[in-house]
## 1
Amino acid sequence: MFRLVTYPREVEINITANGYLSNTTTVKLMPGNTYSGTFYLHPLHALQTIVGRVTDRIFKYGLYGVNVSSNSSNYVFTNATGYYVFYNTNETRNLTFSRSEYNSTTVEVDSTANKTINVQLVPLEVTQSALFSVALGRYFPFLFSLAYVSWSTNAALSPLFSSYQIIYADNAAMNNPSYLNVSSPGTQSVVLSGIFPGKTYYVTINMYLDNGQIITGNTITISYSNLIDLGMNVVILAGIGIYAYVAIGFVIRRRRRKKSN
């Protein structure tokens, strides 16, 4: 890694290293702008090329500045997105991946063929709340005005739990949404009102912790466009209608019997 400070102009950068082909790049530097880039040097006598990406095992994002090495003199670093290119020049059998605040790991290189090796590094310390998640699961619109929604979480038994908040709207931008708050950690389903045919509703969930952290879950869409859901609603309404018809008939017959007596 190097840094060059100069006045605005066209700069020719020539990078050389023993055992590698040189790389020359021309960069136009403009006032007020900072240029950053990655340069790769190809070895004169590489036995093997190994490429890959190093990511955080918990959050899955690429890790910058991971040292990928076979020994103290043959090493590279991952770029800003976690990618690396390692040239094996001495029949290396093991690659070690290390970075501060992470547990290092060593991967065995079992051949001299070019290959891809992706690695996940585990943080040295992970707070309990960083491992919490919440996700909407099953849903079912019914009675042409309501919707049943359920979710799952691994934080229900944690003392850090505070509340859930269900947010839903009839537009993807979530303008003018409706809110439903749930304070009981054991409650993991609700019935939403105002879910009508002819519209698509977007539903998401937030989970609040006592330490101020907000964990956002996934977003689902609910509508009556599914023929199975539509058919089940028709059956439900028909069942309610038949039940009401039978109940009213029973009441009417009972009144007639009382009058006849």
## 2
Amino acid sequence: MVTESVGSVRGLSIQGVSELLGIPAPTIRSWERRYGLAQTARTGGGHRRYAATEIADLRLMRDEITRGRRTAEAAVLVRDAATSTQPYRSFIQAFLDVAETMNARQLDVVLDHCRDQFGLDDAICRVILPGMRLIGVAWQTGRCDISQEHLVTNATRSWLKKVLSLGPVPWQRETIVLSCGPGDLHTVGLESMEVLLAQRGWGCHLLGERIPPTALTAAINRTRAAATIVVSHIASHRRATVASLQAADRTSTRLFYAGNAFLAATTRTAVPGTYLGEDLIQAVETVSRALEPAPGESDNVLKRCLSPALPSPWSLRPIRRTDQRGSS
């Protein structure tokens, strides 16, 4: 892999993008001509050069077509996505700037400012996740090296941990297990979900990367978690992730799953649990609604808590620990 500076304007050739994304070069030219996608700078010789943001647009186009959308519909979605991120562009660009300067503190300040301006939900969903995807593309195309990718990833995770530690104490009665699939290494999306769930009062047990089925079920039983979320982004590890879901399905937990490994509807056939889709906010709301007590149940719980009658000591169960969070 030939490494270029993150700030380089040279970009990747159309052949390089084709090999990276698995899209034929004539198809890329057709999308550019017919739908105006990935309008690129050209060299003095007239050759296309694709920046990380343009490669990200082409990847989204490919993924939407894989999901079953018609090409024209996918192009509209990609253009709309580009428009919706416009107010956040400078913050997303900061991820590339930090990779170039290797100044992790800079990203912490930028993300604090972004949260203050747009709120935590948008800071995570509109800036952190697109920013990390951009860094992933930059690494894949050789525009940043592994040390730069790791620095930005660790700085992002540190910021999420800071927000989590300064956030509210969980007030919901139930807890949630969060786990990567057995073959998955990347945890930023899962850590982002933990922060958003915590903001809504849920206590979480974050298990992290590469969790095998036996460890997952042991954690569910040990924590008595009301819900479990398993995320997998690697298609080649989908079968192993499904095995984890099947094992978890034999416990009493409410089961959810997400990730790029399950983008196409055909990949979700006979998979146990509820698919959470790609919108992180909607996913968090789906889990929250599923766990919220039925109307009237909250009042009954409060009445039991305020009742002067003392329970028999023989009926007491061990106290459930709700403050355990695994590190990834």
